Amino acid sequence: MIRADLVVSNLSEVATLSNGSVPRVGSAAADLGRVARAAVAVAQGRFAWVGPERALRRSVRLRRGGHRVDGQGGTLVPGLVDAHSHVLFAGDRAFELPLKARGLGYPEIARRGGGILATVRATRRAARATLLAQTTDRLLGMARSGATAVEVKSGYALSVRGELELLRRVPELRRRTGLRLVPTFLGAHAVPPEAHGDAEGYVDRLVREALPVIARERLAAFVDVFCEPGYFSVRASERLLRAAVALGLPVKVHADEFVRSGGARLAARLGAASADHLLTSTPEDYAALARAGVTAVLLPLTAFASSPARRSPARELVDAGVPVALGSDCSPNAWNESMPLALALAVHGGRLSPAEALTAATVNAAHAIGLEDAGTIEVGRPADMALFALPSTDHLGYRFDACPVAVFRQGNPISSRGFRQ
Ligand code: FE
After folding, report:
1. CA of 331 to the centre of ligand 1 (A)
2. In 3-state terms, what secondary structure has residue 420?
3. For residue range 389-411, what is the model confidence (pLDDT) as tens digits?
4. Residue 194 Cα, ligand 1 centroid: separation in angstroms?
5. Do 10 and 109 lie in a common domain?
6. What is the pLDDT of residue 306?
7. 30: how many CB neighbours lie within 10 A of its CB?
8. What is the 305 CA–ligand 1 centroid distance (Å)?
9. What is the C-alpha to C-alpha distance for residues 183 and 250, in angstroms, rounded to an integer?
10. From the CA of 151, how far away is ligand 1's center (Å)?
11. Quick one: pLDDT at residue 220?
12. What's the gap in Å between 171 CA and the centre of ligand 1?
């Protein structure tokens, strides 16, 4: 008999995502390992039992002082995993929206004081307490929307010291929110004004001064680069990422978002953990990613924010045998704290089935950020889960504004102050 601290019962469906190898590729991406009329039990922060409701009573007893949650016929899914975010910033760029609405392009908006460098100025200026408070608010918004694990990139300080400082803020954000946070070093997000357009020189500094500290102090789980014309060339990106790999740091690439500059090919060549965006990549690029086993992290909200006509090639990538994951890409450019909304756009614009999109937002996203024990509901795994008032997972993505009625991290429900740890 299992002694549980928490039982969630009366669920019309539990999507366990527990079948098959990780990441899920091709037709396996649609297999959610569903259990109908189900319940789950948690002991000491981990799933202790998952099964049909009728077997619950003979298998599980609630410990004295334990909690029972009535799922009210809802659907339980693993805590959502946000595989790509720029959530660590200060200020906002709401002023850009009317300019975008008038059809101004990114370079013109940057000339008028907008763009990444506007956020760099705001983030550099912000007091430590302000940056932490603003970022905590956003992370808690993500958690209320169902995320229990979030990748957090640096990238708005753009100096060696400032970028390392941003990464050093992540443990405090973890304490404040109770979320599982995975830090990624994105010092190469843009060329800082002080470098006067010398991207190569700036990369030299990152390689010489930042990467060794990051590797030594384990400040980041990944190293990423914005590989686009006007930012970092394929050559400069490759130099940075090869230096990271040599230090044992896995890499990611912002690839082929604006133009097909070769970012996806670079990710395939390096055996990167992921290639992200891929809006302009070709079928040949998809094949290269599939051969190299690189996960595609798609960010459909960013595509939508740049133009509603743009769509992430989710269907094409799944059909090409590439593992597909999702992220919010929450940033001051496209401020989105909702993984369910990203999932809905992956279904509509990206043409995934709701099941494929849920796989991309859970087990495959966890794989993309190196969390091999997240994104599933399985005995022994951390009890991270989101309860939706929906009759089945078929309604995820179908209902654009789906928001969970309860979210748990290690069996603890979210409160206004985050998850208790
Ligand atoms: Fe990004």
Report:
1. 8
2. coil
3. 999 999 999 999 999 999 999 99
4. 22
5. no
6. 85
7. 16
8. 13
9. 12
10. 11
11. 98
12. 21
